[in-house]
Automatic annotation (TrEMBL):
The lineage of its organism: Eukaryota, Viridiplantae, Streptophyta, Embryophyta, Tracheophyta. Residues 46-471 form the Peptidase S9A N-terminal domain. GO terms for cellular component: chloroplast. Gene3D superfamilies: alpha/beta hydrolase, Prolyl oligopeptidase, N-terminal domain. InterPro entries: AB_hydrolase_fold (IPR029058), Pept_S9A_N (IPR023302), Peptidase_S9_cat (IPR001375), Peptidase_S9A (IPR002470), Serine_Peptidase_S9A (IPR051543). One of its GO terms (biological process) is proteolysis. SUPFAM superfamilies: alpha/beta-Hydrolases, Peptidase/esterase 'gauge' domain. PANTHER family: PROLYL ENDOPEPTIDASE, PROTEASE FAMILY S9A OLIGOPEPTIDASE. The gene is LOC109724948. Serine peptidase whose precise substrate specificity remains unclear. Does not cleave peptides after a arginine or lysine residue. Regulates trans-Golgi network morphology and sorting by regulating the membrane binding of the AP-1 complex. May play a role in the regulation of synaptic vesicle exocytosis. It comes from Ananas comosus. This is Prolyl endopeptidase. PROSITE patterns: PROKAR_LIPOPROTEIN (PS51257).
């Protein structure tokens, strides 16, 4: 979550699938010598945790897991072991302290003193966030701005709203508790109350807070912990929210009545452990939707927002493999779905747009109205008074377009997007990351997004769907980049062709336009396609500095994720400049299991998970074969489920990477999925498989990183990070992996495997903008140290 040019050459060399089947499982003298060179003579041996006999048996298989005890986070021996591991990691990195300080200073110097988002109108208010100078976290604010004109705005300021209102200050909370994570914020429809969820430990156990924006006091705190999603009823006096069970599955909807001393009323409970409950409002605030979703199926109930006591309306019963999500527009529910339809062949799992009358007796009478064009898939939608916004992908690349609303009532059968004369939002690059803004105002004709790429610092862009023009409001300031273009506060009245235009390919690129603040003159960035073991083309994005890159000699990092249908983040990050300026190459592999259309996701799940692993290995080999990265300087990074990907590839191809960073990695997948009492486990069965099923268990065993460590092999240098309060991936996953790697693999090489645990934060770390620089500096210093390359 990238280039001014998309270059996918049909003449690119491909790798033979046979190459993917080779690996090494014996000591390599060159690897061992390199590992020894990394170790200071004063460095002590790494910590050795205790071992307690523990046997696991299922489906006729039996294996020992002497580090199973680490799952007990109350065991003082675990905390003691992690403290010793942190001390070992610090000792290993002692010689790189100066480099760490230098990198952190560089990163901090690029961070502007203050950061602010452009105000976004919602009704009579302008809402915005900013980070004050010297602070780590944002402040949510607003100012009154009457939508009917400047005079009324000025009068409003003179009478009541002469200065900005601070609604929520993350910094105050962090100073009080030492940690802050705001999960969800919701302003009431009358703009008088703010409801938000707050985690002050890093465990992602969120408490509900309701603040009166007139008195500035917290007027309500729910006794229920583990609150996830929120929405207000139309009266602004009733707040609906979801809570989790002991496995962190959101399963129940409750209703809080402000000012009432009564217990919060239960509205809905989901008893199926495979389903999570989410609650939201339609954009026009007419209805509240209760969405019960598994990874592959969904069921929706609606409530009249002004009559929540009127009961739930079930839209359509859940069906295996069928998902749907809805919005409301003047008497119709518009439904994004992959449900089988006589107008839409759904064998590929593709989505289309249907609708039905917003009447209880007609909720199951769906009519297909908008179909995707060829090679295009629907990803999401947003609804406004005069426009429907569709989030699309064409050949894996993002598109946004708007269709005028309403759609006529008497249409004869569904039509393709191009038949609606849709306006495609102009973008600077076909490989941009596009993140929608809040866009809360149903009556607005302006749609806000943040556009970003590895060579484009974040741009805030407003698309006027009525006038079909766009305005670049703001571009992230990156200190120290003298060649950065200034793209602030100007309008590009540039017309875009409709979807039927022959010039429309992936999307409407605006080539060589300096208005977008594109840094491609300094940084090379393009997309290649790599052939995997079975002929699948894996998109690979490659980034490097045109000045510092050294052909055939440069070190580099391959990033991967490949799970949950999530697109790998390739958005702008100024921290990367520290590596790029030193000649490093950064590459991003969009392996199967990750984002794209539904078929790409499914092709990397359950029994097909090996596809993700082979895809990643193929991309690493490609980077070396094509001379982008020198063989002994190739590194890998994977976070969370991406850590599973990298760990599995390291087991299979011990010599492919010289170093790796596994951040809060999901490594002990087999043991974790065998215990349905652990958080998120049952929900992951649709993604990775259910090990209670023998065939799916055997598929998991084939790649589980913890269970497939190559005995006596030379493993790459590795930095493995964990968080003690991580509720998504247990801290023991990283600790067990490191202990077992050191026990089973080459004793010289494994001394360069270090574990660094955040003893205070959760899955997402500390979160502040300056503390993030310190973490990134540690990671980059580790890679530079173990690779031994610093131009």
């Amino acid at each position: 979550m990238l280039r001014t040019k998309t270059l996918v050459s049909p003449s690119l060399r491909t790798l033979s699938p046979l190459v993917l089947l080779s690996s090494s499982s014996t000591y390599s003298s060159s690897s061992c010598n390199k590992a020894r060179a990394l170790l200071s003579p004063s460095l002590r041996s790494p910590p050795t945790p205790k071992k307690i006999p523990f046997t696991v048996a299922t489906h006729g298989r039996t294996w020992d897991d002497p580090y199973h005890w680490m799952r007990n986070t109350d065991d003082p021996d675990l905390r003691d072991h992690l403290d010793r591991e942190n001390a070992y990691a610090d000792a290993f990195m002692a010689e790189a302290c100066g480099l760490r300080r230098q990198l952190a200073a560089e990163m901090r110097a690029r961070v502007p003193a203050t950061v602010a988002t452009p105000p976004e109108r919602w009704g009579p208010w302008l809402y915005y966030q900013y980070i004050p100078e010297g602070k780590e976290y944002p402040i949510l604010c607003r100012k009154f701005s009457h939508p009917d004109g400047l005079v009324k705005t000025l009068l409003g300021y003179m009478h009541r709203f002469s200065k900005e209102e601070v609604l929520l200050d993350w910094n105050e909370i962090a100073e009080q508790f030492g940690y802050v994570h705001i999960g969800t914020c919701r302003i009431s429809p009358d703009h008088k109350f703010l409801a938000y969820t707050l985690d002050t430990s890093g465990s992602e156990v969120f408490a509900l807070q309701v603040k009166d924006l007139q008195t500035k006091h917290i007027i309500s705190s729910s006794e229920n912990q583990n609150v996830v999603s929120l929405t207000w009823a139309g009266d602004s006096g009733s707040l609906l929210y979801t809570i989790c069970d002991e496995t962190q599955r959101p399963y129940k909807v409750l209703c809080k009545i402000l000012g009432s001393d009564n217990a919060d009323d239960p509205i809905f409970t989901e008893h199926d452990l495979n389903y999570c409950v989410d609650i939201t409002s339609t954009k026009d605030s007419k209805y509240i939707t209760i969405n019960s979703n598994s990874r592959t199926s969904s069921e929706v109930y609606v409530l009249n927002s002004t009559n929540i006591r009127g009961g739930l309306w079930p839209v359509r019963k859940r069906m295996s493999g069928v998902q749907y999500f809805l919005e409301h527009h003047y008497g119709f529910f518009y439904i994004l779905t992959n449900a089988p339809s006589e107008n839409m062949v759904s064998t590929s799992g593709g989505y289309y747009l249907a609708r039905c009358r917003a009447e209880k007796s007609l909720l199951d009478k769906w009519q297909a109205v908008v179909l995707p064009d060829q090679d295009t898939t629907f990803q999401d939608m947003d609804m406004f008074h005069g426009n429907l916004v569709l989030f699309l992908q064409k050949k894996g690349l993002p598109l946004f377009c708007s269709i005028d609303m309403p759609i006529v009532d008497n249409i004869e059968g569904p039509r393709k997007v191009k038949d609606f004369n849709a306006w495609v939002f102009p973008l600077p690059s076909s490989l941009c990351n596009i993140t929608p803004g809040s866009n809360n105002d149903f009556l607005s004709s302006v749609y806000r997004v943040v556009v970003s790429s590895p060579v484009i610092p974040d741009l805030t862009v407003d698309y006027d769907m009525e006038q079909q023009v766009f305005t670049i409001l703001h571009q992230e300031e990156v200190m120290g980049l003298t060649d950065q273009n200034n793209a602030n506060s100007h309008s590009l009245n540039l017309q875009s062709n409709c979807l039927s235009s022959q010039s429309y390919q992936f999307l409407h690129n605006i080539e060589d336009s300096q208005s977008w603040g594109d840094l491609s003159e300094s940084y090379f960035c393009e997309r290649r396609e790599v052939i995997s073991h079975d002929g699948f083309s894996v998109p690979l994005t490659i980034l490097f500095s045109r000045e510092a890159y050294c052909d055939g000699e440069s070190p580099g990092i391959l990033h991967g994720y490949g799970a949950y249908g999530e697109v790998l983040d390739k958005s702008w990050c100024s921290d990367r400049i520290s590596l790029l300026a030193r000649g490093w190459v950064l590459a991003y592999a969009d392996v199967r299991g990750g984002g794209g259309d539904v078929s790409v996701h499914r092709a990397g799940t359950k029994e097909n998970k090996l596809n993700s692993i082979y895809d990643f290995a193929a991309c690493g080999m490609y980077l070396v074969a094509e001379g982008f990265i020198r063989k002994d300087r190739l590194c890998a990074i994977g976070c969370s489920a991406g850590g599973l990907l990298v760990g599995a590839v390291i087991n299979m191809y011990n010599n492919l990477f010289s170093a790796a960073i596994l951040k809060v990695p999901f490594l002990d997948i087999c043991n974790t999925l065998l215990d349905p009492s652990l958080p998120l486990t049952v929900l992951d069965y649709d993604e990775f498989g259910d090990p209670r099923n023998k065939s799916e268990f055997e598929a998991i065993c084939d790649y589980s990183p913890y269970d497939n460590i190559s005995p006596r092999a030379c493993y790459p240098s590795m930095l493995v990070t964990a968080s003690f309060h991580d509720s998504r991936v247990g801290v023991w996953e990283a600790a067990k992996w490191v202990a077992k790697v050191r026990e089973m693999t080459c004793p010289s090489c494994s001394r360069s495997v270090i574990l660094r645990t955040n003893m205070h934060g959760g899955h997402f770390g500390e979160g502040g903008r300056f503390s993030h620089c310190d973490d990134a500096a540690f990671e980059y210093a580790f890679l530079i140290k173990v690779i031994g390359y610093q131009s």
